[in-house]
Specification:
Length: 299
Amino acid sequence: MFNYYIYKTMYLGVHLFTNKGLLQAIKEAEVMDINAIQLFIHSPASWKVSSIPNQISLQFKEAILKAKIKFVFAHSSYLINLASPKEQVYKNSIICLKKELNLCKQLGIPFLVVHTGSPLNKGEKYGIEKIIKSLKKIDEEGYLEKTGILLENTAGAGNTLGWKLEQLAEILKALPQKEKIGICLDTCHLLASGYNISNSKGLRKTLKSFSQLIGMERLKLLHLNDSFYPCNSRRDKHQHIGKGYIGRKGFSNIVNEPKLKHLPMILETPKGVNYNYDKENLSVLRSLIKDEQNLKHLN
């Protein structure tokens, strides 16, 4: 039988809109009774990064404490491409990323989620080397002093990098600062890129590979999204929890996996009106959480 208080010991949350302001987003988090959040600190479809008044940043920090939110993440602009061979795109990406990290520092946000990007037709080796060079430069210039970066795995559409764990491992191997640069795993992207986490055997195999290639200590965040497309489709489209190719059983295994239960888990599923779909998806996830005595019954 589901115990209401079990999920309180976990860190479940959603990606919040900030179009009505940072403080309103925190109020929405309180309504949904969540203890982990992710948000954009500026428009994800724009290079422009506006400043935030100090008074707002102080109020934001106070609101986080009042709402008893344990984990706060920011997501970077979708335009950022650290592997781009196009000079202006790459230049804009570095400038934008630096500004975002500064805003995260001001707001007290410890991690910024970043997509690795695409080298277009230049190939994997070129792209990985450029990403490593970019992140080293960002670190050497002091931008990771207060806010770290989480590289997010991708579905592998087009020439995007980060869809294979080996690619992420190669990048992190060249960036040994474990406290500054980690990984965010997206469940939809994992399945779409060929990691069949819809069953317990596939989940364990994937986590074993991650542990061997990267190390579980580098995993800081999970994006919980079902997949509209099947395993190895290399297509990225998020679906409601339990209604895609990962399914309810797959998410039951994920939220009850001992290696993952301590991690913050953020929904990026379709929103609906007034977070109605988020509330439904949270309800589904909470219903799947089992107490420790029932974990042995997972398939």
